[in-house]
Amino acid sequence: MKVEPIIQVEQLTKKYKRAKEPSVNGISFSVHPGEFFAFLGPNGAGKTTTISILTTTLSKTSGVVKIAGADLETDARKVRQQIGILFQNPSLDYELTAEENIRLHVSIYGIYPYRPLYRMMPKAYKERVAELAKMVGLKDELFKKLKTFSGGMKRKLEIIRSLMHNPKILFLDEPTQGLDAESRRSLWEYLQHIRQKENITIFLTTHYLEEAEGADRVCIINKGKIALAGTPEEIKNHLLVKKTMNLDAANRKQLIEELATNFCDYEEWEHGVKVYYDQKTPHGLLQHIKTPLTKLEIRVPSLEEAYVDLIKMQEGDKQYVGN
């Protein structure tokens, strides 16, 4: 049975007044329910414009966008009911407690009527807050003021706010911007847990390419157009990002002779010999090497390398069009 996309974008275009070229130029893509979808692109590529349109904060020039079955143009209110958003720049009141920030948010968005005290809020509100606070590890900090919170804790509070209305899609716009490495890792652990428990579709934009490495699919936009789309592995294979092994031996000359005899693509450098291989695993190549090795390092190419290569190629006007 075919599952309908939860996000469907067809020929989306946005052209600002006085601009020579559209910021977003007829792009099309889809996102499946429950998918972890990464939307990447350099500054000025049209990434922020696209996510602003999808989250109803910016109008489009033309094209069709459907979110969870609702048309963006004719039913924007229903679209907003289906999405949660974690903005790049936090919008929190540091003089309020975590719970007061949540209470103010749900009243502004019409999820629950505002009450001046927590004890006056409906039972459903209290249960949802408690459930999400426990899930992200803020249960003991709910009634503390935000000015005592770390950057990671503030981000977790924003996750609670964005999930209060049980959205089907969570838009993450640079969610770990400004966080240290430990806070970034912790936040992603909670996000993945929430994704599984709540069965939420995640739509991510990020400058940290390693965060997109675990995505189900990646879509790269550049100069307002889709440059390439697919799984991280498909993108790396499409761009022929080379897998390498770093080898060395006490008798490096003999090692190089063996590599040459086996028609290996290699280059010598100060730390040994870098060998390029096409096999899915390096086992087949190593079987042919008889010289005793003093070093063996297998390096798997990253999505970041593929991304950088693609952008460089496009700057040189070599176009890649995704599926």
CATH topology group of the largest domain: Rossmann fold
Main β-sheet, spatial strand arrangement = 6-7-8-3-9-10
- Element pattern in H and E: EEEHEEHEHHHEHEHEEHEHEEHEH
Basic shape? globular
Q: Which structural category do the helix and sheet elements fall into? A: alpha/beta
Radius of gyration, taken over Cα atoms and rounded to an integer in Å: 24 Å
- What distance lies between the first and last C-alpha atoms, to the nearest angstrom? 22 Å
Can you count the helices?
11
The percent range for strand residues is 15-25%
Model regions low in confidence, pLDDT < 50 over at least 5 residues: 317-323
Reported for the largest beta sheet, the result is: 6 strands, mixed
Helix content percent band: 25-40%
Task: Give the CATH superfamily of the largest domain.
Answer: P-loop containing nucleotide triphosphate hydrolases
Which architecture of the largest domain would the CATH scheme give at its second level? 3-Layer(aba) Sandwich
Describe the structure.
The chain has 323 residues and is an alpha/beta fold. It has two domains: 7-231, P-loop containing nucleotide triphosphate hydrolases (Rossmann fold); 242-300, Alpha-Beta Plaits, CATH 3.30.70. The protein is 34% helix and 24% strand. β7, α6 (181-198) and β8 (201-205) form a beta-alpha-beta unit. α3 (98-108) runs parallel beside α5 (151-163). The longest helix has 18 residues, at 181-198. The radius of gyration is 24 Å and the shape is globular. The two termini are 22 Å apart.
